Amino acid sequence: MPTSTPSTAAPSSTAGARGTDGYTHYLNKDADQPFYQRVWNWMTTVDHKKIGLMYGVSLAIVFLVAGVLAMLMRMELLSPGPELFANDTYNQLFTMHGVLMVFLFLVPSIPAMLGNFVLPMQLGAKDVAFPRLNLASYYIYVAGGLMTVGAILLGGLDTGWTFYTPYSTDAGGNAVLVMTAALFVTGFSSIFTGLNFIVTIHKMRAPGLTWNRLPLFVWGLYATSIVQVLATPVIGITMILLILERTLSIGIFDPALGGDPILFQHFFWFYSHPAVYIMILPGFGIISELMATFSRQRVYGYTAIALSSVAIALLGFLVWGHHMFVSGQSAVSAIIFSLITYLIGIPSGIKVFNWVATMYKGSIWLQTPMLYSLSFLFLFTIGGLTGIMVGVLAVDVHLHDTYFVVGHFHYVMMGGTVMALFGGLHYWWPKMTGKMYNETLGKIAAALVFVGFNITFFSHLILGSQGMPRRYATYLPRFETLHQISTYGSWVLGGGMFLILGYLLHSMVWGEEATANPWAAPTLEWTHTTPMPDPHNFEHTPIVTRGAYDFHKIEELIPGGDGAGDGAVTEVGVPASGDGASGGDGQQRRRETEQSS
Amino acid sequence: MNDGGTVWLPESASTLAPTIDSLFYFVYWASVIIFAGVVIAMLYLIWKYRRESHADRMKLVEESRLIEATWIVLPTILVLVVFVWGFRAYIKVGVAPPDAYEIRVTGKQWLWEFEYPDGTSTTGELHVPVDRPVKLVMSSTDVLHSFFVPAFRVKHDVLPNRYTSVWFEATKEGTYKALCTEYCGASHSQMTANVTVQDQGEFESWLKSAGIPSDASPVERGKILYEQQGCNTCHSLDGSEGTGPTWKGLYGHDAQLADGSTVTADANYIRQSILKPGSQIAKGYQNIMPASYGSLSERELTGLVAFIKKQSEKGRAELKAAGATSDSTAAAAADSISTGDEQQQAPSGPPGAMPSAEASNQ
Ligand code: HEM
Ligand SMILES: [Cu+2]
Fold it and tell me: Are B63 and A350 inside 8 Å of each other by CB?
């Protein structure tokens, strides 16, 4: 029989009480100060945890807006004709949906929110290497977001998130200028975060935390950061060139001015293909954490997973042409790009096999984060296989720019990245807020999202291979049934999402206090007390003596629990005062590490 | 859902389709098997190793090089097979036979124009002979477009600064849809064309009459042109909003122009709007109607004007009053000059008279 959830386990309330007598939760540190002061404290914080949360709130807003836009699009597509919106409005909807989801949500999502919050703790560090730069990245991101709002106020744009020229050289007026400038700006946020993480991972690992003991989430973020730093400048420059072409009529992409539209596509995908790895690699990292923790088993093929992330990141720069098989590039380039696309698909496949194998002889605990992790395996496999399908040159001639491609990238980006993000969010929620979410509602929502997602997007795959082109405000009557199914699915999906929003917000106020390590997770961020020492995460720099997933050595490293998981039922003595100098927690850890060595 | 097709693929009507379909289904079934393998393994492991007590421990597992090698090597072989197959088919799709019949295709916002070797041109209506390779040489006059015929499994982007091409050999007579698959602005989704596959004889006689039967009345001619010239992509007949004003009730009503003036939409006005769309923009619409209609012949214009008349109460009355039963009287009615007098019911000018020096391009 499955054991009770941590939120209902009796000791957790005692654990929560600790917050009041010993430590103060980092979120409540300034609770006695006036409101404006607390707002100011947030705005000027250089604490990676708070910056991560601020990103979280901003990302949630973007995700909500972009999600509502998507629901509106699906409403319009309930019937073949133009019912709800005029063509132009629909075209603006899909453009804003794409721009917001890709550039302002998926690209920053996992690194900026969960990465910021978790990375330093997983490394046993006090903060990221450049805390002020970290705050600057956040404000740059916000500036980009405000410019996007500006673009919408200027009348919006309808170029699609890909901004293909020459349509984008004269359509849309100033909104296009402002939007492209916004992408230029947010690019810097991405670059700075990447730089920050690279330096942090190289320089701030706790003693004993060698590269092959690093949690795989760190490896994922490391690979992502490389891509962010190397690829993002290209989109920045491309956007600047587009702006110059529009304002000064310099012919770069517009044939009317002597430019070449295909050049834009090369530039655009030279960033945007690597960008899909910016989106998915951190997700891979989270899935490794979740599979390990909830199977209580080391990740099968640790080295293969760690190194393949880096390999994918680098090879990812060499496949951009697979977006242009029918655009007019030469057949030779198309063939080379197709071949490399497969080579990069294989490591992704191997990762899936490794994650499945991780469950072998494990002890599998189906909590909400694990449900998302399993959803990921299911959906990402479909996404990867459809990726292989569109990578087949002759087949892509038929499938390119149809709903099949739309289905493919939703399976990888939503079924992959977003599932990983949700899994990670639930997993680290107790750490971030000090509260447990409602596990039952969590499971219901995960099921709704999974079912709704498949109804919505599997129909896309069939629509596409039947010949339904993408970005169509109206469509041929023969596609009506599948479009309707997809729209109904989007309601289930949307319902699941709003349920998540609801119970997460609810838990922040009314949720049960979380214990130090509700999942009996093995990585460093779970080894300290709850609430965690503030502001520096650890009383003393931890000394690491084992690999990230050495569960057979786990008892020594989870002071908050008995090493058995399921709610960390053994209490650990915690010093009465929070001044940390004589930190019993740290001493205890040191004692444990001595024992184990 | 679609006769002649399968669950996944639409009906197939070209020699390339079977090649692409078999490749599609090969990858599809390989994917289904791999996917089923992953899911079954997952479900089995979840059930077999479910946590029964919170003290459950994992067991140490030796990683097996052999297993890892298997799941690296097998997929690699599989994708290499698919790659080679895919690229050979791609070459086939990309290279037209040298004896292919060539048709020029122009994509413009938001219609397709086709020009045949004998100079005939049509809009939104492509006719091709069956069992004969056809090569479309394509270019665009504005932004990117992409020419896609699902039933033939061919697609290629259409660019403003160079020619691109697709070729196919249709195998089944019938009418198929061509769609634009590169986003090109407001009416992207209405930028479609009908592809009619006919046997060689029918095709040739169609080509001779440029698609319009010689005994058609002006209204019938106008109706054919309405579709053939792509008027229907922007102008509706049922009053619904489009990129351009609807034709329903257009004739004879007071048209508001963008410059604030009001004119009566008479035959003159309509003629002028077709020949020089930019000279009088209806209020609330953009100046985007292609100027290329200036090359329509007098006969074609007559047909269109008559057809537009047919769409309004007043025009129908006029056509009737003119006793529009025979070809010549209908033409006279359509070509007549309207003075703008609301009460005017009968044609007042000689057939074929040119309304003004400006509109006259003869
Ligand atoms: C096995 C791995 C993958 C392969 C082989 C693959 C292959 C491809 C190919 C060939 C295309 C172009 C299809 C076309 O436009 O006709 C494509 C499109 C796309 N893929 Fe993937 N892909 C893979 C994984 C991913 C991942 C992990 C992501 C993102 C997280 C992703 C995101 C996208 C997006 C966004 C597009 C479409 C972009 C657009 O046209 O708007 N793919 N993929
Ligand atoms: Cu790509």
Answer: no
